[in-house]
């Protein structure tokens, strides 16, 4: 598979689209690799890509029990942003957004990254103060934030209910570089890039055991036979606890279901990502025209990949409260993704007590925008043994030591609060 | 999803607030050390399948231990959390 280009699209159009070939190989697993990555989702694929590209480590396999990108990277609401407040998170998501901005040229793949601007609404003086602080933190990090007053929001989002009795709109924090991307294309682009650099992408290959001898990882057992490896990385958000249990670990993770919804395709009406925190509601419009929106987790541990009705009602209530016009749209479908919820709402990229075994988990409901930065930092950790600076605070032991807990919401570092 | 309250019978999920995994009943001793407390507070089995967890029935103020399945959302039954904790204490497992 060569490079994609506009010229190639035209050329293939002229000769009946007969020259396209598969975007990656379908190799048999080898007996041994330098690095085995468990999990062929966004984070696993980007880790493989950056291992090859940044560190020249190409004797790598990505093992995926289903198909590439079939998990949360294919089930999210596609939002890309860098509007975090706390040190540790702020520099990480800032780095990730910079990678996003160069991603299409880097991958030679159209991920439809659209920096349409993200607006977080506020509804009181106190909330305005909090967003001023957040905006300043973002600017200090080198990212962009603009405080909009009520009229400023109205220019961007004239269709909102500004005079709602309970939540009148006082203004919003605009993050112009925030936006969306085509989620599947991100997985496919990284997969293609990794494959081109020699990484073996092995699908329908479920890891059933992790081989550890004398505290050192030796490889994995899989549904397609044993595979030896010098290093193994568990990058399986949504199933982190099950995979870590194969290495005798219990993680600070609870799995919860987060629902999302999409309407029938409509003409362009919502040009931004709009976040209505008081209703735990956010919305954007896909390039196909569907309104894509969601709310909070269902708040009970679940692996069902589908939610219950009370949260659906809550999300629809919030939508109608914020933008009554949405009542005319018909919801086509809804689904649920399984979130690795951590006690402080922040992720983990770290070594484990087993030598050569690494863990990347705990992305809560924010994993999609982290895909480039997470892969970059995880690859750095695997290749060099040193934490990559922007992700250096994502430690597994922070709940034990109390150092570096990143509780972005300020609700306390315990389960079921984020 | 409907959940059986041990006091009121089967009620809508809306009447309940989810609490935590039922291991919350298995509290370490005050002097058990930071590793034991970290494990208790933060680390989880987080099973995909049968689980036992704590639900609070907002309507009557009861904490219940609910047997259910995290994959299918099937709910099999429940008991009073108070009884479950007393049972643990009687079995010598309770460390509180």
What does this structure look like?
Chain A: Residues 35-79 form the Rhodanese domain. Chain A: It is an enzyme of class 1 (oxidoreductase). Chain A: It is found in: Cytoplasm. The complex is a heterodimer of chains A (418) and B (96). In chain A, the strands form 3 sheets. In chain A, strands 1, 2, 8, 9, 10, 11, 17 and 18 form an 8-stranded mixed β-sheet that branches. Chain A is of the alpha/beta class and 418 residues long. In chain A, 28% of the residues lie in helices and 26% in strands. The radius of gyration of chain A is 22 Å and the shape is globular. Chain A has helices at 6-14, 42-55, 89-101, 103-107, 125-140, 150-156, 183-196, 240-245, 309-322, 371-384, 398-401, and strands at residues 32-38, 60-63, 79-80, 118-122, 146-149, 171-175, 179-180, 200-202, 207-213, 216-222, 227-234, 254-265, 273-276, 281-285, 290-301, 331-341, 348-351, 357-361. In chain A, a hairpin with a 2-residue loop joins β9 and β10 (216-222). In chain A, α2 (42-55) packs parallel to α7. Chain A is built from 11 helices and 18 strands. Chain A folds into 2 domains: 6-78 and 184-251 and 344-401, FAD/NAD(P)-binding domain (3-Layer(bba) Sandwich), CATH 3.50.50; 113-179 and 254-341, D-Amino Acid Oxidase, Chain A, domain 2 (2-Layer Sandwich). Chain B has 96 residues and is an alpha+beta fold. Chain B has one domain: Folate-binding superfamily (Folate-binding fold). Chain B is built from 2 helices and 6 strands, in the order βββαβββα. Chain B has helices at 34-42, 81-90, and strands spanning 2-5, 9-12, 16-21, 50-57, 62-69, 75-80. In chain B, the strands form 2 sheets. Chain B has a 4-stranded antiparallel β-sheet. A two-stranded antiparallel ribbon of chain B has the order 1-2. Chain B is globular, with a radius of gyration of 14 Å. The termini of chain B are far apart. The mean pLDDT of chain B is 91. Chains A and B meet through α8 and β15 of A and β3, α1 and β4 of B.
């Amino acid at each position: 598979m060569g490079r994609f280009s506009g010229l190639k699209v035209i050329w293939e159009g002229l000769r009946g689209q007969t020259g396209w070939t598969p975007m990656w190989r379908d190799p048999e697993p080898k007996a041994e690799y330098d690095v085995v990555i468990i999990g062929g989702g966004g984070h696993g694929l980007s880790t493989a890509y950056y291992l090859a590209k940044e560190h020249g480590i190409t004797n790598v396999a990505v093992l995926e029990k289903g198909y590439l990108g079939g998990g949360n990277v294919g089930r999210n609401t596609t939002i890309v942003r860098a509007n975090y407040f706390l040190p540790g998170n702020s520099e990480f998501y800032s780095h990730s957004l910079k990678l996003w901005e160069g991603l299409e040229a880097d991958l030679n793949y159209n991920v439809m990254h659209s920096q349409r601007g993200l607006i977080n609404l506020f509804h009181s003086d106190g909330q305005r103060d909090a967003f001023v602080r957040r905006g300043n933190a973002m600017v200090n990090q080198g990212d962009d934030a603009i405080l909009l007053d009520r009229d400023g929001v109205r220019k961007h989002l004239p269709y909102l209910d500004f005079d709602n009795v309970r939540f009148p709109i006082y203004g919003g924090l605009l993050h112009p570089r925030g936006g969306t991307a085509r989620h599947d294309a991100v997985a496919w682009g990284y997969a293609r890039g990794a494959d081109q650099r020699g990484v073996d992408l092995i699908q329908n290959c479920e890891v059933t055991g992790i081989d550890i001898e004398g505290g050192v990882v030796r490889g994995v057992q899989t549904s397609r036979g044993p595979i030896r490896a010098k290093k193994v990385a568990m990058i399986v958000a949504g199933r982190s606890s099950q995979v870590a249990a194969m290495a005798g670990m219990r993680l600070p993770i609870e799995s919860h279901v987060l629902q999302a919804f999409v309407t029938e395709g409509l003409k362009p009406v919502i040009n931004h990502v709009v976040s209505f925190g008081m209703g735990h509601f956010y919305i954007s419009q896909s390039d196909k025209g569907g309104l894509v929106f969601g709310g909070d987790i269902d708040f009970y541990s679940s692996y069902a990949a589908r939610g219950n009705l009370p949260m659906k009602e809550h999300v629809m209530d919030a939508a109608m409260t914020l933008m009554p016009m949405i009542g005319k749209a018909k919801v086509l479908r809804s689904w649920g993704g399984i979130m690795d919820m951590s006690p402080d709402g922040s992720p983990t990229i770290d070594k484990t007590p087993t030598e050569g075994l690494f863990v990347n988990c705990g992305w809560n409901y924010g994993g999609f925008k982290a895909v480039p930065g997470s892969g970059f930092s995880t690859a750095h950790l695997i290749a060099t043994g040193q934490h990559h600076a922007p992700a250096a605070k994502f430690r597994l032991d922070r709940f034990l030591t109390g150092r570096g807990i990143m509780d972005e919401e300020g609700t306390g570092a315990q389960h079921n609060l984020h | 999803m409907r959940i059986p309250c041990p006091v009121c019978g089967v009620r809508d999920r809306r009447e309940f607030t989810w609490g935590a995994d039922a291991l919350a009943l298995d509290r370490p001793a005050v002097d058990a050390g930071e590793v034991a407390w970290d494990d208790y507070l933060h680390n989880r089995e987080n099973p995909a399948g049968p689980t036992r967890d704590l639900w609070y029935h907002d309507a009557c103020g009861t904490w219940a231990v609910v047997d259910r399945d995290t994959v299918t959302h099937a709910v099999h039954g429940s008991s009073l959390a108070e009884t479950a904790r007393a049972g643990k204490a009687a079995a010598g497992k309770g460390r509180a």
